[in-house]
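Recap from last week: sequence in, structure out.
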Amino acid sequence: MSTVTISVPATTANLGPGFDCIGAAVNQYNCFKFSPIETETSDLVITITGKEASRVTCDHTNLVYKSFLKFYQYLGQTPPKIAINIELGVPLARGLGSSATAIIGGLMGGNQLAGEPLSLSEIMKLAITIEGHPDNVVPALLGNCQLSVGKAENWQICPIAWHPDLIPVVAIPDFELSTKEARAVLPAHLNRDDAIFNIAHLGLLIKALETGNQDWLTMALNDKLHQPYRQTLIKGFNSVKTAALSVGAYGVVISGAGPTVIALTSADYADRVSSAMTDAWMRIGIKSKAQPLSIDLDGTRVII
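Predicted structure tokens:
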């Protein structure tokens, strides 16, 4: 095989009470093109295009290549010399799973070039090991909304039905928030009442996404595990949330570790929710981009 292209969707994880276990693929993409190098000059050439291309490393520390290398190490094989072209369509460090796309892209590129020795399930487990948790890499690979339960080699993956009337509106502010920083503010322990709260709300969330029930969704998107702590790191969060709810959003949550914010609403209100969120941030001097997206049902695509 001379060249293979891997297209991987962005993801939004947690969705309120589903901390570290639930995520959904959305229709923004990073694309990774792998071409074996025939010459003796170099074992790796990386080229990157896209708005934030200058921020991504082009050497052996690149996460796509590190994942590509991890695949061959897993097989106990020497990786081929490779040229990787990366087309960025997913914002970096914004809570939309950009690192998950790199991990899946590297693993799937290696698998294709090696003749597909690993199944999707094996790729998924390897990706979870690299990422450390499943909420982004699983929907990035499989598409749709996915609930991941288990640990180590024993993962149970459950697709969650997403009602077609529910539109995710993504608002991306012009500042970053690292996952490390977002995890650092979380409490080490949770009291029983808060644990019960999140268990109940996650159960309701699954039924709300399936049925599109507005009242269920409005209640279900609340949580006490991560959002009360992380929202303090996102300047203007409460103003953005209030603005979205005032014009028709059913609920507003932090996407992944943030700072991206996602509102769930209907198609009739999606555009005005987008405008309300960007306007709220603009009033406190923060530029942002907001747009209605759709759930990606196919996950990672391989183009030969």
